[in-house]
Amino acid sequence: MIALGAVCDDPWVLARIGGALGEAARAGAVSAVGDARAPVPPGLRGVDPSWLETALAGLPPRAREVLAAGPRDEADVWLARRACAGIPPLPPIDPALHRPRIPADVVRLAPRAVRDWLVEVGRDHLAFAAGDHARAVPELAVAAARIDRAPRAGALGTRRDAIARCGGRVEPFTVGVRALAPHLEVMLARALVLRFPRPDGLGIAFELTAHRDGRSGGWDALVAR
């Protein structure tokens, strides 16, 4: 509902949406306006420094000081907004969160937690794609046993789709990213990419974009412990 408030710019319409839906939409509108007016997006410290270095390239040296200490005048505000033009708001990382509960939680995970979780997801899909042969592969034996039990059993999509996700000489993490792609909205995908060093992030961005319209396993199967 925050998204509804962010895209609706008609106060008359927002004022007439009743109940919890209306309250959430109006809160979303306030939040969106505040984020848009801020010189730097919320959560900037959670962006991997390599992305900021790229954003600062070609800007005056003052831009680096502005991002570190905050703007002091209108020129500083312009520099900050110019440097952060491609960076969406990011929520704070929750160090206690090791796997998401809902898709929006993905960008609240620390990069290491994201990687560990998606490696596990990738092994599940590799084991599913390999069928009975997976039990003979030490790296996949545990996953092969895991996917035979609820909530993964019968919830990983079709084997044909799993084989397509595992195509090429790819590691489990990449397969996990491909399985996640259909579940992430564009802004969440962009935010996730920025958590990782730029070379890794570009590869993640490619996989998320290439597999966004694909068919994946159910969300409950992806996040199951």
Average pLDDT, to the nearest integer? 86
Looking at the structure, what is the overall shape? elongated
The amount of beta strand, in percent, is: under 5%
The secondary structure category is mainly alpha
Give, in order, the helices and strands: HHHHHHHHHHHHH
First-to-last CA distance: 28 Å
Helix count from the secondary structure assignment:
13
> Uncertain regions: pLDDT < 50 for 5+ in a row?
1-9, 24-36
Outline the structure in words.
- The structure is a single chain.
- This protein is an all-alpha fold.
- It folds into 3 domains: 1-37; 40-90, no CATH class; 103-223, no CATH class.
- The chain is built from 13 helices and no strands.
- The chain has helices spanning 2-7, 11-15, 19-37, 49-56, 62-69, 74-83, 111-130, 138-146, 159-165, 172-180, 186-194, 198-210, 219-223.
- Helix 5 (62-69) crosses helix 6.
- 30% of the residues are buried.
Keywords:
225 residues; mainly alpha; 3 domains; 13 helices; 57% helix; elongated
Strand and helix layout:
Blueprint (H helix, E strand, L loop, with lengths): L1 H6 L3 H5 L3 H19 L11 H8 L5 H8 L4 H10 L27 H20 L7 H9 L12 H7 L6 H9 L5 H9 L3 H13 L8 H5 L2
Helix pairs in contact: 5-6, 7-8, 7-9, 7-10, 10-12, 11-12
